[in-house]
Structures are given as C-alpha cells and as structure tokens.
C-alpha cells in the first residue's frame, strides 16, 4: 500500500531531530541523538520483541494460525503502512525487516516508539484494564528517557523549544508518565523547561477510577509524595484553584475527599479557595477518623464566613455530613445559622423510582434519632419537587423504614399526617410492609388512613391485603378492628383479600376474614395454600369456578410446592383439564411434575390425558430420561423446537432420533428462557434470543449432528426460512465453523437479515461486543475471514453497503476499517464498497471518521484518494467528524493531514472546529488543540 506523503506532516518534520550530526561538522543543537554513540546501538532481542508486540496490539487483527508468523517482516510492514507515513517508498519494508530480524538500531527503534507515543497509539486489547495500559505506557516512555539520557534538562529543553506538534505531543505523554509515577526529577526538569502544569492528564485514582485531572488535583490524591508534588507544581505556576469542571472540584476538594490531611493543610497554606463542594465534602470527616479535626472545622468556617450572608437556602451542602451521621459538622453549620430548608438530592428507596426529600428526610434515613432531633426544624421551604422525582416526607420515610421512635417524635413535633398519607403509598401500607404492629397502632391512633378512597378497582394493594399476603395475623386483626374494607377488588394478583388468604393457606386467617365479612374470592389466584384450604373452597362452592378459570395453574403450583396431598386432591377434581382457555399456560402440570422428578404424577397425568408440550419434552431431555421420552412422544403432536434444541445442546443423537421417529416438527422459535440450563453448564441460555433450531445447531452442534439436522429437515420437507438461514450463517461465521458455513451457503437466505449478539452467545472473537447486531457479511468482516467475505460477495451477492438499523451499526467497509484489515478493505473496495456510506444514527461513523479515530493514517490516505468526504457530518447522536475524532484521540499526524487535505474550520464548520478543540483539550491533547488553532489562524 504505497501512498505519497506530504513533507509537511509533523512526524516527517520531526524526523530531522532523530538524525545523527554529520561527522566533521558542528553538532546540531536540535538533534536528540548527538550525545549517543553511532555504533553499538543494536537493540536487544527483548527490546525488539516488546516493540513488535506493541505494534501488533495497536491494530486489532485476529491471531494468525501460526504464532511464529505474528511478528514477521511482512506483517510488521503492513502495520507500519497503516499507522505511519514514510519519507520514501520502501522505507517501511526495510524497517520492518530490521525489526523482525532483531537487526534494528536505536534510531529505528526510537522512530517507531516515538511515533506511536506522539500519535497516542496504544493497545486495542479490550480485556486490558486502563491501569495496566497506563502502567505499561509509563514504563516504556520512562525507559526510553533513561536509556537515551533524554531525562536531563538539556534534552527536555530541546523537545519543548521546538514548538513542533510531534515534539509537543511527546512531551505531553512524558509529563503524564512522570506525574503518574511520581518521577520528581523528570517533572522538575520539564517544568523548568517551560512545561505548563495547568493541563489535564489521564490518571487512575482510588475514588474515581480512570479520569482526567490536573496535575495538582492528582497530587492532592496521592499519599506518599503529595506535599512534595504540590509544592513543585505550585512553584512552577500551577493554579491552585484550577479545575476543568465548573463545580468547585479543585485540588483542595480532591484532597478532602481522599482524606489526605497533609495535602489539605498544604493547599490551604498556599491560598486554595474553599468552594461549596469543599465545605460539603468536609462532612465526610469525623473526629475519630482524623488526627486534626480542627482542620476540617476551619474549612467549614472559612466557607461560612464568605457565604453565610446570602439569602439562598442550601440544604445539600450538609447532606454528606447528615448521611455520615457527623454530629460535630452538623452542629457547626447549625451554630452558624446556615440556611438549610428545601429539597436535597434524589434518593432511591428499595431500588424504586427516584424521590426527593429534605435534610430532615435524610436524617430519618440514617435511622439515628439524635440526628433527626438536631434537624427537626428543617422543612421543604418554598421548593417544589419535580415530576421526575416526587416528594417523600420525613414522616413517610420513617414509616417506610419502620422507625417507631422517630415516627412518634415527628408526629409529636407536628408532622402533617394527612399530607404524608396522600403520597405514593399510605403510611399504614409502608408500616405493614415492615411488619411493625406497634408502628401501625401509633399511626392509627394519630388518624392515619386505614384504606384509600373507595373505587371500583384499586390500583395498588391496601394495607390489609399486604398484611394478609405476608401472613401478619396481629396486623390483620388490628386493621379489621379499625374497620378496614374486606371486599375491595384489586388490579394486582390475586385480586381480593380472601383470595390472598387462600394463597397463604392459613385456616385461622381465612376464618377471621370470613367471620368479619369477607366474601369476594375472584379468579386471579396462582396457588392454593394447602389441602385444608382446598377443602374450604370446595365446601363453600368456590372450587368449580376457580378450576374452570385456572385449574392447570393451581395444580402445577401444588406440584411445584411438593404438596402431594393438595395436588392429588386437585387432580381428582380434574384440575388438569384446560377449560375454554384463551391464553397459553406458563407451566403445565405435566411440566411441573417433570421438573420435580415426580414420576407418580407424571404417569397419573399421562393416564388422565394431560397435554404433552414442547416444554415437557425439553425437561425430559435435559434430565436424560431416555425411558420416559418415548412415553411422552406417544401422545405428542405438533412443533417442539425447544426439545430439538435441547437435544442438540446435549449432543444427544439418541434424543434426536427419537424426536425424528415421532415426526416432531422442529420449526418455530425455541423458548430457551423457559428452562434452567445450569446442569448443562450453560447458565446464560435463559437470555438466549435465537429463533430457530437451525441457529442453535449452527452455534453449538458439531458437523455430523448439524448435517443430520439438515437431512432431517429436508426429508420431512421442513423448509428453513431465508431469515433463519441468514441468522444461522452469521452464527456459524462467528464460530468459524467452515463446514457449517459451506452447507448454509447452499441454502436460500436473506443476507440483509441480522442477529444480535447478546451475552448468552459466547463467540471466539473478543472484538464482538454484547448486543451488537450483524449480518453474515458483517460477521465475516468482523471475524476477519477474507475467504468468507469473498464468497458472500461473489457467490451470494451480499449487499456490500448494507449497515442495518439501530445504534452502532457499521457497513462492512466501516467494520474493516475499524479493524485495520487492508486485505478485506481492498476486497470490499474492489467490489464497489461506498467510501462515503453514512454513519449510523447513534454512535455511527463513516469509514474515514473511523480511520481518523483509530489513527490509521495509511487507510485514511487511501480513502481520501478514493474520494472520501473529509467534511462529512457526524452521527446524529454520539458522533464525530473525522477532524473531531482525530483531535479527541490525539492523532497529531492524522489531524494535520486532514487539515492539509481540506477539512474546513470556518463558516458552517466552525462549530465543529470549536468542538474538536474542546475534545482535544478535554482529553489532555493540547498539542492537537494548538495544531487546530494554528490552521484557524485567528484564535
């Protein structure tokens, strides 16, 4: 892949700094190699191997079949052509040969490593943690500095004084590595050479994980060298209050959050501003957790001295202190008269929808009555909750947590019980959920609602229904004595209070409710509590109507509960019969008996004429019951794709032959979610989205069984749909089952039909993301099977430019560019792939945009030569233009080439230009931002 490169590219200009000064001439002050010996600079095999390994990890090609060829000269040359420009034709081939044969010199080695560093080209391994990647990069960069002697003031000044984009980008990476490793010598030399400390650097800190911080913010989080680093950075101009975010998360805030007392003290001495966030974060600290609590009291007082006179209510500033039950901090704010009325942040009670409350509500959540008493005067004030986060009063929170003493205190303090009762749940409903009879008594005594307003159909369970369902006899008795309604009809199962008692199966509870006047039974019951309850239903005339509406469900529930007495009683009353059903049973009695290994019931149900279902057959196959399967098949007719799939997954030819002999129809979608597959080591099959036996076979079956399935379908004249064939083909391609692929290619298929790879499908390729969707051609490109790509294009006429619907979709060419696979890229281009195919709506990108993001400058050059639109707009959601993508990822040479080739930064493209600058600076790529600005001219 030869292309002509402009000599104006930053890297080609920088290469002059890697030239040895000519002999008999004065040494060049700008050469980085002038102090290094010309001879004896051959790199060790270990160094060469590490470089080749790094090169191969930048481009995510699939592993070759012969590992010895992974670092061959031709492979290395291909990677270099994709990533780097060259001064003259053939340079990369010579360099690749030297590297792969361990004959490279220091300059060769440096030229590759420094290019990778300057363009931020790192490993694409999706399984590597960011901490590991940064640590590996830091070791490489600092080792180069040490081995070359470039960590001294002289060489760092050379790098920083050139004002060349490549040199500036390298120094950014060096500075970041020195900071992350606390290499004070290199940091100081760089700062003395003019490096600005007011920048963003990617770091990993305990509290936030991987993030971008200023050097001073990072120093504030460090334990060992924090004070030394803080002084060094501030002495060389670090802005003590600088933060990229306008939220007060300064270096001081980070020091407070990480409880780094020496850093807090030093930053205060250096004049750091105590922001609102700083004062709030001080609430994390308790006297027993610090050696100098007065330091944090000072932080609070400094902030209040400056802001106490404002009229603004600010309860959230104390929220952390309240949740930490930090009494001294709370008292400090209260003593200064802080204004604390209003709403605090969102809360999630029991994982439900977000709610809002007050600081007093937060105090209730701590379940500490001392904190509640301290803040009893706090109210909602003039705030009004949003629709997205309804208000929950402190009294409602106290009931929801079952806090008797706090509820009594709030009621005694004048809490509005009527307002609290009109929230999403009544107070009694909340108290019953916590099984707290004493709290229920208190609330009833103070006038809490026993029932909601009467209506024809109650949308939510009443306090009495909740108590019955939880079998809380004391509370049921209390509510009945408080005149709770007994015959409401509810929109939730089991529909009535008496039906709930029948499900629980407590005879005393049933009698109590009946004696109190409960009469309505309803027809929504899912189970009967026990034989005594069943007898009660029979004696009172309820049983026939219940069995008519849901007999099989009730019998299946009894079998699953292993209540044989009740199950036999229901079977004798013909509960297994499906009378006038309009919906499909979730679980038949026969399936329940099979799951419970209850052979007696299985036989009794079969004798009674119970219907055999696909799920029943499947359960039998999963449990390897070869003797029972023929008995079930004798009474089965229809389709059983799940059973056939189970036989395939178990690799059981015996089961398949029995199913085939019984003329089972395998068409239809397997219902994988109905079964537990853990006994087969396939725990994720409950979430499987496969839609045909053919897909299951393509995914899991070895070739002989796969061939058997095809022959069975053919002999029974069961024709696979084109959609099923395409989906199966995609799976076979991902699994790289070439015999399966060949068979499927002979069948009629809809090659624009796709399949979503969810986490139940374990594919060989790590590059395949969960919930990404692929057609066969896209799968072949993604798994980098060039021969399959060619066959799909030539033999099957696959649509080369089809991307599909949905987010993150790619055309085959866009996939190939993302992988950096030139063989497939060239193949697709030869067959007419559109270099300007549009980006998917959400997260999509054109081929050129992808190349720019990845830093594949050789591919980008080829696409431009073929007419790729350099100014094509980004995806509507989460998209980037080529210029924005290159800037965000620090691809210096890509950025320069795009600008040289006509990427526009004015007129209608000016907004995208400013976003590109912002993206570059937000990722710490200031050299890229400066390069952009130099082309704009007037920024």
Q: Nutshell version of this structure?
A:
This protein has about 950 residues and is mainly α.
Q: What topology does this entry show?
A:
Layout: H1 10-14, H2 45-58, H3 73-83, H4 91-100, H5 106-118, H6 130-148, H7 153-161, H8 165-180, H9 184-192, E1 201-205, E2 209-213, H10 215-221, H11 226-235, H12 251-257, H13 261-269, H14 276-281, H15 293-307, H16 319-323, H17 327-335, E3 347-348, E4 354-355, H18 359-365, H19 369-374, H20 394-400, H21 404-412, H22 417-421, H23 427-433, H24 437-445, H25 463-469, H26 473-481, H27 497-504, H28 507-516, H29 531-539, H30 543-560, H31 564-572, H32 589-595, H33 599-607, H34 614-622, H35 628-634, H36 641-649, H37 653-661, H38 693-700, H39 703-715, H40 722-734, H41 738-745, E5 755-757, E6 772-774, H42 776-782, H43 786-794, H44 812-819, H45 822-830, H46 847-854, H47 857-865, H48 882-888, H49 892-900, H50 910-922, H51 926-936
Antiparallel strand pairs: 1-2, 3-4, 5-6
Helix pairs in contact: 3-4, 5-8, 6-8, 7-9, 8-9, 8-51, 10-11, 10-12, 11-13, 12-13, 18-20, 20-21, 20-23, 23-24, 23-25, 25-26, 25-27, 26-28, 27-28, 30-31, 30-32, 32-33, 32-34, 34-35, 34-36, 36-37, 36-38, 38-40, 40-41, 40-42, 42-43, 42-44, 44-45, 44-46, 46-47, 46-48, 48-49, 48-50, 49-51, 50-51
């Amino acid at each position: 892949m030869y292309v002509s490169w402009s000599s104006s590219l930053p890297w080609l200009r920088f290469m002059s700094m890697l030239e040895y000064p000519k002999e008999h001439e004065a040494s060049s002050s700008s050469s980085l190699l002038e102090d290094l010996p010309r001879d004896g600079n051959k790199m060790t095999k270990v160094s060469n191997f590490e470089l080749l390994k790094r090169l191969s990890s930048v481009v995510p090609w699939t592993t070759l079949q012969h590992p010895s060829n992974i670092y061959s000269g031709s492979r290395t040359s291909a990677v270099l052509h994709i990533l780097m420009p060259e001064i003259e034709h053939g340079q990369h081939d010579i360099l690749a040969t030297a590297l792969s044969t361990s004959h490279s010199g220091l300059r060769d080695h440096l030229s590759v490593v420094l290019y990778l560093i300057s363009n931020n080209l790192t490993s694409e391994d999706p399984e590597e943690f960011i901490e590991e990647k940064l640590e590996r990069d830091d070791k490489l960069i600092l080792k180069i500095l040490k081995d070359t002697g470039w960590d001294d003031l002289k060489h760092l000044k050379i790098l920083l004084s050139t004002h060349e984009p490549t040199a500036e980008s390298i120094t950014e990476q060096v500075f970041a590595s020195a900071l992350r490793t606390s290499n004070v010598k290199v940091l100081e030399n760089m700062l003395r050479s003019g490096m600005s400390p007011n920048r963003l650097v990617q770091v990993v800190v305990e509290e936030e994980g991987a993030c971008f911080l200023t050097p001073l913010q990072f120093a504030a989080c460090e334990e060992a060298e924090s004070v030394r680093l803080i002084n060094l950075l501030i002495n060389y101009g670090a802005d003590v209050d600088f933060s990229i975010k306008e939220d007060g998360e300064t270096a001081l805030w980070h020091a407070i959050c990480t409880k780094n007392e020496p850093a807090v003290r030093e930053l205060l001495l250096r004049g750091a501003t105590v922001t609102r966030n700083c004062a709030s974060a001080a609430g994390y600290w308790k006297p027993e957790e610090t050696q100098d609590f007065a330091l944090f009291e000072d932080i609070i007082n400094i902030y209040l001295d400056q802001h106490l006179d404002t009229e603004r209510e600010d309860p959230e500033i104390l929220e952390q202190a309240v949740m930490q039950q930090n009494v001294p901090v709370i008292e400090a704010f209260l003593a200064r008269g802080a204004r604390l009325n209003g709403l605090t942040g969102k809360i999630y009670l029991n994982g439900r929808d977000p709610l809002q409350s007050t600081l007093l509500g937060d105090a209730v959540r701590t379940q500490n009555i001392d904190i509640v008493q301290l803040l009893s005067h706090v109210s909602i004030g003039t705030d009004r909750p949003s629709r997205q986060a309804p208000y929950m009063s402190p009294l409602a929170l106290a009931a929801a947590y079952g806090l008797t003493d706090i509820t009594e205190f709030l009621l005694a303090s004048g809490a509005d019980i009527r307002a609290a009762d009109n929230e999403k749940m009544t107070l009694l409903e909340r108290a019953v959920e916590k099984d707290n009879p004493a709290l229920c008594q208190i609330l009833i005594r103070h006038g809490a609602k026993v029932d909601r307003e009467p209506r024809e159909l109650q949308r939510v369970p009443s306090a009495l229904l909740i108590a019955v369902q939880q079998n809380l006899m004391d509370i049921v008795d209390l509510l009945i004595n408080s005149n709770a309604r007994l015959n409401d009809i509810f929109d939730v199962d089991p529909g009535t209070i008496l039906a709930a008692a029948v499900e629980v199966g407590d005879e005393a509870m049933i009698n109590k409710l009946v004696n109190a006047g409960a009469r309505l039974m309803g027809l929504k019951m899912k189970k009967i509590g026990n034989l005594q309850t069943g007898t009660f239903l029979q004696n009172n005339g309820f049983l026939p109507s219940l069995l008519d509406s849901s007999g099989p469900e009730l019998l299946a529930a009894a079998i699953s509960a292993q209540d044989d007495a009740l199950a036999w009683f229901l079977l004798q009353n013909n509960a297994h019969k499906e009378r006038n059903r309009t919906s499909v049973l979730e679980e038949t009695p026969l399936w329940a008996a099979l799951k419970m290994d209850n052979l007696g019931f299985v036989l009794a149900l079969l004798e009674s004429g119970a219907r055999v279902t696909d799920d029943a057959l499947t359960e039998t196959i999963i449990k390897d019951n070869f003797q029972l399967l023929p008995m079930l098949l004798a009474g089965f007719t229809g389709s059983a794709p799940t059973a056939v799939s189970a036989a395939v997954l178990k690799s059981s030819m015996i089961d398949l032959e029995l199913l085939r002999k019984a003329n089972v129809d395998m068409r239809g979608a397997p219902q994988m979610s109905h079964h537990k597959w853990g006994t087969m080591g396939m725990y994720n099959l409950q979430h499987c989205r496969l839609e045909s036996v053919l897909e299951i076979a393509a995914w899991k079956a070895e070739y002989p069984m796969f061939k058997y399935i095809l022959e069975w379908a053919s002999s029974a004249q069961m024709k696979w749909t084109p959609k099923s064939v395409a989906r199966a083909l995609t799976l076979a391609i991902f699994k790289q089952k070439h015999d399966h692929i060949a068979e499927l290619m002979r069948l009629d298929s809809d090659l624009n039909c796709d399949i979503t790879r969810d986490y139940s499908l374990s594919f060989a390729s790590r590059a395949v993301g969960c919930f990404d969707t692929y057609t066969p051609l896209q799968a072949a490109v993604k798994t980098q099977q060039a021969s399959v790509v060619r066959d799909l294009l030539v033999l099957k006429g696959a649509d080369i430019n089809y991307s599909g619907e949905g987010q993150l979709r790619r055309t085959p060419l866009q996939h190939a560019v993302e992988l950096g696979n030139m063989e497939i890229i060239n193949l697709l281009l030869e067959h007419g792939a559109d270099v300007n195919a549009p980006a998917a709506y959400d997260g999509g990108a054109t081929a050129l945009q992808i190349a720019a993001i990845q830093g594949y400058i050789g591919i980008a050059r080829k696409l431009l030569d073929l007419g790729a639109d350099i100014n094509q707009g980004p995806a509507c959601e989460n998209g980037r233009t080529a210029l924005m993508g290159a800037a965000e990822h620090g691809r210096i040479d890509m950025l320069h080439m795009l600008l040289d080739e006509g990427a526009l930064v004015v007129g209608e493209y000016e907004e995208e230009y400013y976003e590109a600058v912002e993206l570059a600076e937000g990722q710490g790529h200031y050299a890229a931002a400066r390069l952009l600005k130099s082309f704009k001219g007037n920024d």
